UniProtKB/TrEMBL annotation:
It comes from the Bacteria. InterPro entries: MetI-like, MetI-like_sf. Keywords: Cell membrane, Membrane, Transmembrane, Transmembrane helix, Transport. Residues 87-277 form the ABC transmembrane type-1 domain. This is Carbohydrate ABC transporter permease. It is found in: Cell membrane. Belongs to the binding-protein-dependent transport system permease family. It is a multi-pass membrane protein. The chain crosses the membrane at residues 26-47, 87-110, 122-146, 158-177, 198-220, 256-277. Its main location: membrane. The keyword Chloroplast does not apply.
Amino acid sequence: MSEATGATPPRTRTPRPRRSVGRVPWWAYALLVLAAVVCLFPLYWMFVVATTDSATATEMPPEIVPGDNFFHLADLVFTTVPFLQSIANSVLVAGAIGVGHAVLCSLAGFAFAKLEFRGRNALFVIVVLTMTVPTQLAIIPQYLIISELGWVDTLQALIVPGLASAFGIFWMRQHLLTTLSDELMQAAWIDGANSWQIFWRIAFPIVRPAAFVLGLFGYVTAWNDFLWPFIVLKSPDTYTVQIAIKALQNNFAIDLGLAMAGSFLATLPLLVLFIFVGRRMVAGILDGAFKG
């Protein structure tokens, strides 16, 4: 009938085959489980020793079942050193350093990435070169400066030198180069905004996920720092949590159960922190990984 009338038959659309999403193989899950076990086992072993005694750490085969001595050792930790005060000091120091990393490194990275001033490239090269200097070489001049300021045995001796880092400035500069467009900067200049307004209202909200991750890294680094607080702090009232753990050990013998109990108590605040901000941290890292 269609040939007689000359009409063409209607075309029928052939459905496109759907792309099947490949399933993750079983061995990938097995590797992830194995990696999780390897990473978590030191924490579990620390808890096992903290619930028994020092002899557990040297037994062969090792004991892998927790005991019932944790609360006794935890009470001994709090009575031996001012542990709660040390935790409060660590929260203050690490919190200030984390906020300083997030804001000051972002501000310096914004200046190096988007502002034009004389000597910008030379100053940035100097900042990057400071990452090649070992931390141990900077301790003596840093201590002399802190001593001249009268900050020995004070918490500001820990906070002020750690408010910014060369790595943080480099990271935020590279992030701002790829996320903040020059056209947006020029539009803000035309609207009458100054450099600080552009940074605080435009640049910083854009890089806030990366700044949050950087601040979290600074928080964890300050929490776990031992060498510099051990040199600067003298009195128990100013101890951070790592120095308090060191104070649990005497010069002749080490009670591993007591030390592990203190270490586990010092790790709990970080575990709680990562439970609440872990997903946001991963999102911030991935946000920086897919820019550009």
